[in-house]
Structures are given as C-alpha cells and as structure tokens.
Amino acid sequence: MALSFGALTRPSTGADGQVQSRHRAVGLSLAVVGLSLAAVSLITSVAAGDLARQGTSADQIASLGAWSFGLTTAAFGTVKLAIGLILLGIVRHIWVRVESVKAALPGLIPARAAGTDALGEFESDFGPATATATAPKPLLIHRLAGLIWAPMLAMGAMLVYAGLLLSFAAAGNVAADPALASSQRAWVQGIQFLGEGLLLAGVSFLLGTILGAIRAGGGEVQESLGLTVRTLRTPTAAKVFVGLMMLGLMVEIAQFAGYAYISTVPESADYAAFSTWLGPLREFGLGVLLSGIVLALATIARALGFQFARINQIITSGRRGGMSTMSTSPRSDFNVELSQRSLGPNLPQRIGRLLWLPMLVMAVMAFPVGLAIGVARSALIASDGDAVLIAALGHLGPAAMFVGFASVFAAISFAIARILGVLRQGGGEVQETAGRSVQTLRMPPSGWAFIGLMAMAMMVILAGVVGNAVVGLSIAGGNADALAQTESWGTWLEAVRRIGVALYLVAIALGLATIIVVLRFQATRLRELPTESAG
C-alpha cells in the first residue's frame, strides 16, 4: 500500500504521544556518526600541518588536504541531515500535541455556543492577528515547504557524498596528474557546498513546515470547539527568513558556477585568484542561510506563545472549578517537578530569550567582513601584491568569518533555548489556568548535553579564531617565524575551527531532540487534565 506524502509529517489520529520518537533516535545516532567523521578529519589535518612544518613533500600534504576537506564537509552534511530527521520528528509530535489539545479542552470547559467574537484583524500581545469563523487555509509558503523539504535534503545529501568520493579521486591524482587533481578539487568544493546549501534549505523548509503545523493545528482546535478562530499573522521575522533562505541558496549556486569555471583552468593565475574569494563566498552563503534559520526559530517561539495564550483564554472563559491542591503522586514515565503555579523559564532559557538577537546581529556584521577580506586578498594575488599582506589576510579573513559562524550558531542555540522556555512556561500556565496541579518536566539529559556541548563548541571555535588573528597580526607585524610557518598554522587552526563547527551542529541536534521530549510530555499531560479533579 502506497504511503501518502502527508503521512511523513502528520501521524494518524489517535497516535500514542508517549511512544519514543524514532526520528529522534535515528537523528542523534546519525549526528554521532557525523561527529566521528569530523574527528577523523581533525586527526588528519593535524598530521598534515605537522608535515608542512617539517617541510615534507607538497604532494603528500595536498593529498591529505584533498580528502580531509571532503571528509569534513561530509561530516557537516551528515549532522545537518540528522538535524533534518529530528525536525521531522518535531513536526509529527506537534500534530500529536494538537490531537491531545482537541481531546483535553472539551473536558476543561463547559459546553458553550459558537464564538461570537468580532471578526477581522486585531493586535495581540504577540503581534498582528486575525479572527475568522473557520480555520484559515494554509499559506502558500507552508504548502511549498511541505512539498520541498524532502527533495532538498535528498539532493543535498547526494551532492555532499558525491563530493566526498570525488575528493578521494583528487587525492589519488595529486602526484600523478596535478592539473586533473586541481580540477577535481574545484569540483569537490563547488559540489559539496552546493549540497550543504541544499541541506540547510531543506532544514529551513522543515522549519516552515513546523510553522505551518502550528498555524493549522491551532485553527483546527478552535474550529472543533465551535469558537472564533484566532490566528497570528505572518511576522516580519518570518518574511525576512524566507528572503535570507532564497539569498543564501542563490549564493551557493553562484559559488558552484564559479568553481565549475575554475575547474577548466587548473594551475593558472585565474585558478588561484578565483579560489581565494570563492572560499569566503561559499561560507558567506551558508552564513546567510543559518541567519534565516535563527529567524525561523524565533518565529516558532512567537507562534507557540500566541497559541498558549489562546488556550489559556479558552479555558478561562469557561473554567470548571478552582485551584487544586498540589498532587504528590510520582510518575514513572517522565521526571517532573510538582507545583501549584507555572515555574516559568529556567535560567538557560531566560538567557536564550535575551541573547539570541544580539548574537544574530553580531553574525550579520561579521560575515560580510570575512567576505570582503577574501575579495581583497584575491585582488592582491591577481596583481602580484605584497606576499606578506596576502599571508596575513589568509588568517584574518577566516578569523572574521568564523566570528560570524560562532555567533550564528550561538544565536540558533539561544533561539532553541527560547522555544524550550516558551514550552515550559506555556505548559505550566495551561495547567494552572485549568486549576490542576502543575507538573513541569525537569531538564532531560539531552538538554544538559545540549548546554555543555554548546559551550564547548563556542570555546573551540573562538580558540581557532583567536589563533588565526594572532598569527595574522604577527605576520603583518613582520614576524618572520610566523610567516615561515603560515601553512602549518593555517592547517592546524582550520582543523580546530572544523571540529568546533561539528560540535556546535551536534549540540543543536541535541537541543532540537529535547524539544521532542517536551512535546511528548505535554501531549501526555494534556490528556490527563480532564480526568483530574480541581480543588
């Protein structure tokens, strides 16, 4: 029997919300595989840097560099694919939660006539919203997102792993046919980073699918109760998110075209000059895509907050009973904290709410600086400029670019923490409003791992950034030893930055996996509320 495409994102009605998510388990396993590949690449890059320091054959160093680059990029792609699987699990659990809300609300409010609220636009605490008699139809962008996320992830993964295979071929041709190896390395970079861009686009479309599920689910719940349907209008952040996603994808297509061109002119002046600015360009494109993802996560937090406020309003309008006494019954399925009132966000979640936007602003400022330095260095190479300045900019450019990556990954992490805070506070407020004992999920192990790995990743990337800045400034200041060892330092510091990125991506996967745990708990808890007596 054929499986409908919609079944991938929405489970059947009555699905058990307590069942462990296979998407979460497979996604986290895949993230560990990606981190392992990055660790292998780290060891290889450290060895290549040491060979450069010893003055070993350039062919041997180039061979190691060729396949370690392909392996690292494949590692990043593997973790991004894992993130996509976890996001798919989130979509499905959002729909399970919708069914739980549908089942719970009739038992929390008395029978009432259909809503008679005024229809039309109004201003909510979360931004402009609309009131309609029936659930609104899905937006075009949400329909497109539901159709495109899977092809994007599939094409991205295929390109990343095809580039990995080609990198091994390039490594084998370094000594035998240097021109062919240079051409193949250009194709590797162009193909793999186009694949990375498509993977991030797939992740972006999945986030759009999540927003669509929140919007559609909220409408279904209100319509099923015969109430006026209140729907949050598309926030400005969501519109900017779509624009950044399209811009980032176009940049990745442009860098692919650039690498396709230089693959036809290996070992030429054009090859050296073009490859110097194509590297920062491809990273700039990924930075734009990641910045859009931050805004998508922020929009999800806002939409969830609006939804919780609407649920509380519905319960308040026809609440049965008063405040209950605090239950002391332990539960074996989830580790919870009991209280009579909503506990609100915890400290990491409050920090996330405060810092996601400043981190995003810092990233948006750093990425163009890194690209500009790369373009300036390319111009110097093309004009046979000062070799010392070229070497110095070769370190300062990556330093600026990875300030951007450290910041944007921090912004994503803080945005995830903000979502967890909204879920924690909103879930507690619903229970409190219903007059039931408030059960708040304690931090799951994946949540603690998310925080710890995020902090570690930030320190590792910043160590690489500081190292590049120190070496670059030393070269610019006339330090002959730093200039002599620029290749070694460049290789080592790139390896440090790479493993930092891999750690950050795995941390993000853990943060998203924690959202699934929270959604499972909320779906379960919501179904329990009507069966409990209020005091």
Characteristics of this structure?
535 residues; mainly alpha; three-stranded antiparallel sheet; two-stranded antiparallel ribbon; 11 helices; 4% strand
Explain what the structure shows.
This protein is mostly helical and 535 residues long. It has one domain. Helix content is 76%, strand content 4%. It has eleven helices and five strands. The strands form two sheets. The chain has a three-stranded antiparallel β-sheet with strand order 1-2-3. A hairpin with a 2-residue loop joins strand 1 (120-124) and strand 2 (127-132). Helix 1 runs antiparallel to helix 11. The mean pLDDT is 89.
Shape: elongated
**Cα-to-Cα separation, first versus last residue:** 50 Å
- In spatial order, strands of the major sheet run 1-2-3
Amount of helix: over 70%
- The average pLDDT score comes to 89
Number of domains as seen in the coordinates: 1
- Which regions contain 5 or more consecutive residues with pLDDT less than 50? none
**Oligomeric organization of the protein chains:** single chain
Rounded radius of gyration (Å)? 26 Å
Per DSSP, what share of the residues sits in E-state strands of 2 or more residues? under 5%
- Encode the helix/strand succession as letters: HHEEHHEHHEHHEHHH
Number of helices in the DSSP assignment: 11
Number of strands: 5
User: Major sheet: size, sense and barrel closure?
Assistant: 3 strands, antiparallel
Task: Give the class from helix and strand content and strand pairing.
Answer: mainly alpha
Compact summary:
This protein has eleven helices and five strands; from the N terminus they run ααββααβααβααβααα. It has 535 residues and is mainly alpha-helical.
